[in-house]
Design a protein that fits this description.
- This is (S)-ureidoglycine aminohydrolase cupin domain-containing protein.
- It comes from Arundo donax.
- Residues 61-135 form the (S)-ureidoglycine aminohydrolase cupin domain.
- This protein is α+β, with helices and mostly antiparallel strands and 138 residues long.
- The protein has a domain at 46-137: Jelly Rolls (Sandwich), CATH 2.60.120.
- Helices cover 21% and strands 46% of the residues.
- It has helices at 9-15, 26-40, 57-63, and strands spanning 5-7, 20-22, 44-46, 49-53, 70-73, 76-81, 86-99, 107-110, 113-117, 122-137.
- The longest helix has 15 residues, at 26-40.
């Protein structure tokens, strides 16, 4: 029986073209792990805030995001302290978050972002566009 054709993510990333090759059965698992690691690498962390831009719906589903409570606010500016770790998914809006102790440095988050704020962080939210988000405190 012939081996299945398997896409090689490294070739896609380096050449922009998807190529296929015959591989032993363990190769797909290694390649899947490489793709998963690559997807996780799309998340960035700046000033203690972790942002995943436009995560796939499967990731949101795995986390149960659509069942989390919702919160929203209009354009505004206010201080906030996280008494617990918060993970949120922005459905709409645009915000600049200024963590205390970092001067004028900020992290911009917007609709489609999955964001994690650490417990204990104090910051200022500068809401440029009204926010609607799902959130979960841990």
């Amino acid at each position: 029986m012939a081996s299945p054709m398997v896409a090689t993510p490294v070739q896609l990333r380096t050449t922009g073209r998807l190529s296929f090759s015959s591989s032993p059965s363990s190769a797909p698992r290694r390649r899947f792990a490489a793709v998963r690691a690559s997807a996780e690498a799309m998340a960035t962390e700046k000033l203690g805030i972790r942002v995943e831009r436009t995560p796939p719906e499967s990731r949101l589903s795995d986390l149960g995001v659509r069942q989390w409570p919702k919160w929203g606010c209009e354009k505004s500016k206010f201080p906030w302290t996280y008494s617990a770790k918060e993970t949120c998914f922005l459905l709409q809006g645009k915000v600049k978050v200024y963590p205390d102790g970092h001067g004028e440095e900020f992290v911009e988050i917007a609709a489609g972002d999955l964001v994690v704020f650490p417990k204990g962080m104090s910051c200022t939210w500068d809401v440029a566009e009204a926010v609607d988000k799902h959130y979960k405190f841990e």
